[in-house]
Structure formats: structure tokens, C-alpha cells
Amino acid sequence: MGLLVDGQWQDKWYDTKSTGGRFQRSQSQFRNWVTAEGNAGPEGQAGFAAESGRYHLYVSYACPWAHRALVMRALKGLQTHIGVSVVHPHMLENGWELRDDFDGATGDALYGFSKLYELYLKADARYTGRVTVPVLWDKQRETIVSNESADIIRMLNSSFDALGATPGNYYPPALQAQIDAINEPVYHRVNNGVYKAGFATSQPAYDEAVDALFQQLDALEQRLAGQRYLVGNTLTEADVRLWTTLVRFDPVYVTHFKCDRRRISDYPNLQGFLKDIYQLPGVAETVNMAHIRHHYFRSHPTVNPHGIISIGPQLDWQTAHGRERLGERHIEQ
Ligand SMILES: N[C@@H](CCC(=O)N[C@@H](CS)C(=O)NCC(=O)O)C(=O)O
């Protein structure tokens, strides 16, 4: 685990001294936007034109943020238009490594780099910051379009439709306010909440994070009692964003990040929701549990010094979820 400082790699764990033991996630820095025609992004970001074969995703199967991008790529049927390189699950002194000596890890399909930070340096030789996945890479300009998953999934959702993407709008204009409203607490209390609990280095920091996490999961359980998805019966990006954390919860976060008040399998509605999305076409193939479990248990020596991988629960997400009773799934066109 480390970061680049003015183009130099430094092996450093997260600094929680100045924040009372609280983990703070840094902001992503590459924030350009792929649009259908190459026009500017929604907030004026530099535009890159959508073209088949031009963009490449660097992901980790372990990472919930990168997983969002893989799910959206599958829902939109973009597998033939956007290639993928998968990092090795262990993230240690060199950060993410582009090795292929673990089933499912591909190495670097474009440059043969062995470390992800080399790709960041190709985009910006003096980059300062963390070296994270996902990365959306432009093979034409040889630079990073974006390393922010929240933005990348919106680009995949809407910018590639003219190239023959699978129809479906997971961030439709009429629902954007509702999607944004639920994304906010889900991000802070759940997606990032599990990390805040797991990486806390003081009791108050941990207590705050787990309290907020389980309050939010309880609220989501209630919300999903009367509707199939987070925004009515329409499947949206908000569901994808919650789902990648739920998938990792019972097999990893309960033990490794000490999120052990309840399991997702103790929440009937969240568990049904998890299965419902898992069973969508193309989605189960994006879940690689060996990468998920090896990554977390082996990559955080401050949390799990001996790297023992726990036995873990038996998961059965292919069985009936019963969520049809709440109504038919709607996908906005
Ligand atoms: N805000 C980013 C966060 C991405 C992120 O933090 N990814 C983690 C893996 S789960 C990572 O690459 N961490 C490496 C590090 O922090 O050095 C996004 O959503 O794209």
C-alpha cells in the first residue's frame, strides 16, 4: 500500500493520526468524461468521444468501486467495446500489481506494465496521489479519462448507446434527484462506512462508523420492504452502488472490518435484493470471490497481521429471492 508523490512511489499506510483515528478517503483526480460526440461532460469536464475499442478499464475484482464499473459494463452489454485488465488481488508494498499469477488476474493488456502506478505515471509523470482502481484509460490519447467510479458508471450508462449498447438508462433524468438523495447516505455510511469501521485506529472512530453503518442498513431494510429497488421498482445506478458493498459484507466485512452487529443474510429484504441483482444476466460473472477474499485478508497487514483468510460463510445467491412479489422490475429506456 502506498502512493505517488511528485512521480515517486512511496510505501505508506493511510495516515489516521491527524483525524483521531478516522480513515479519510482522498478525492479522485482524473475527472474527464467520455461523451457520445466528445463534447464536455455534465459539469464542463473535458470531453472524450465514445468509440468502440478506444477505452480500456483497469479493475480489481476485489474492489467494490471497480466492481460498479464491471456491473454497469455488463448491464449495458459493453464487453466487446471496452476491454478490461484485472490486477492481482494482493495490494502490498507496490500497490496494485499487474501480474497474471492468480486465476482471473490478466496482467496489463496494453503496455505490459507490472505495477498500476506505472500507468498513472504514463498519464502524468509528476502525479501525486493514491493509485486506485478503477481506471478508465484512453488508448488513443494514452491517458486516464477518469479514476472515479461514480463518474465512470454514468459514462458507461449513457455515452456508448450509439455504438449498440444494451438499452437501459440507470440514471434517468426523472429519477436523478431521488437517486442522488439515496446515493449520499449509502456512500458515506455503507460503501465507505465499512472502510471507516475497518480502518479506524481509535475506538470512537470505529464506534461512529459502525453505528452509522447499521442504522443505515436498518433503514434500507425498511425501505426495501415495500419496493423492489432503492428507487421504487426501477433498477438504477443507486442499486448497483449499494450492491457491490452487500456482496462483500458477509464474506469479508463482518469479520475483517468488524462489521458484526448483523449479517446481510440476517436482513431478509437486503438479502433478497442482493440475490435479485446477482441473478441479472451477466452480473454473477463479475463476482470473483477468490479475489475478494484474498485481497482483503491478505492486503491489510495492520488489520490482519498474519494474513489468515477466514473460513467464511457458505453463500447461496442463486436460490429464489421472492422479490417479484413487490412488482415487476422496470428498466427506464
Ligand atoms: N473514489 C474512488 C475510490 C477508489 C478506491 O479507493 N479504490 C481502492 C480499491 S477498493 C484502491 O484502489 N485503493 C488503493 C489505495 O488507496 O492506495 C472511486 O470510487 O473510484
From TrEMBL:
It holds the Pfam family GST_C_2. The keyword Kinase does not apply. The active site is at residues 63, 195. Residues 172-296 form the GST C-terminal domain. It comes from the Bacteria. InterPro entries: Glutathione-S-Trfase_C-like (IPR010987), Glutathione-S-Trfase_C_sf (IPR036282), Glutathione_S-Trfase (IPR040079), Glutathione_S-Trfase_N (IPR004045), GST_Omega-like_C (IPR047047), GST_Omega/GSH (IPR016639), Thioredoxin-like_sf (IPR036249). Gene3D superfamilies: 1.20.1050.10, Glutaredoxin. GO terms for cellular component: cytoplasm. This is Glutathione S-transferase domain-containing protein. GO terms for molecular function: glutathione transferase activity. SUPFAM superfamilies: GST C-terminal domain-like (SSF47616), Thioredoxin-like (SSF52833). PANTHER family: GLUTATHIONE S-TRANSFERASE OMEGA-LIKE 1-RELATED, GLUTATHIONYL-HYDROQUINONE REDUCTASE. Glutathione binds at residues 96, 130-133, 148-149. The record marks 253, 296 as: Lowers pKa of active site Cys. PROSITE patterns: GST_CTER. Keywords: Transferase.
